[in-house]
Amino acid sequence: MKLLKAIGIEVRARAKTLLCDVSLDVAPGEFVAIIGPNGAGKSTLLNALAGDRVLSSGEILLDGRPLPHWSKLELARRRAVLPQHSAVAFDFTGLQIAVLGLLAFRGTLSERRMRALAEQALAETEALAFADRPYTVLSGGERQRVQLARVLAQCDADPEAAPFLLLDEPITGLDLSHQHAALASARRRADRGLGVLAVLHDLNMAARYADRVGIVENGRVTNLGPTRQTLDPDRLSAVFATPIVRIEAAGGTAFLSPG
């Protein structure tokens, strides 16, 4: 089975251990949310799964092959990454940013098809109005929607490949409506057979969209399992060092922290 799989990975930065003995996998057709306190190692884990972090030990496999055995071009076609921060050095337009997600497909897709995919993704994230605007003049939330369009276009370029979508805090800076829209876009791709892993801080969003949830604490994955089972209020209260209660209402689940 095609998997993105970490096996006993460790990541160190000088004398500090950022990840220790972490194992998990993401399968096609599922949405995995990663939660945990600030500084726990969530972004480091996502970066390692993307191939952007050097491992001290362990290995990461994509479709059974170690990640270092894939070329950059091959990786760009098999996984799309939305980092926590996306720096843009040039005065690109929103459309040009979205097209950047398709550079690995030049030669297999026409310029017209690439533009159509980029515009389709911008429309999905309600960012098509920014297609001709300089990226630098956009607000933080508007930039986030353009960057999300970039990775969605990348995922849609070759649906048969069923790439993996890796999202690091994808709803940061978005209003509530666009938070739901962003995660619904990711959920639709999981339902189409893509594997999705997203680092999230909002427990309610994780409960709403994820199939499985992993909890990262002090560089270790301490819990990983079905969403409802993992999002246990007592466990969450201990992890986040604040009281958390779960409420069932309107056919859904909500988490509150009285403080």
Question: What would you say this structure looks like, in words?
Answer:
The longest helix is centred in the middle third of the chain and has 17 residues, at 140-156. This protein has nine helices and twelve strands. The chain starts with a strand and ends with a strand. The strands form three sheets. A six-stranded mixed sheet has the order 6-7-8-3-9-10, sandwiched between helices. A four-stranded antiparallel sheet has the order 2-1-4-5, with helices on one face. Strands 11-12 form a two-stranded antiparallel ribbon. It has a domain at 4-85 and 162-256: P-loop containing nucleotide triphosphate hydrolases (Rossmann fold, 3-Layer(aba) Sandwich), CATH 3.40.50.300. The chain is α/β, with parallel strands linked by helices. Helix 3 packs parallel to helix 5 and helix 5 (140-156) runs parallel beside helix 6 (176-191). A hairpin with a 2-residue loop joins strand 9 and strand 10 (220-226).
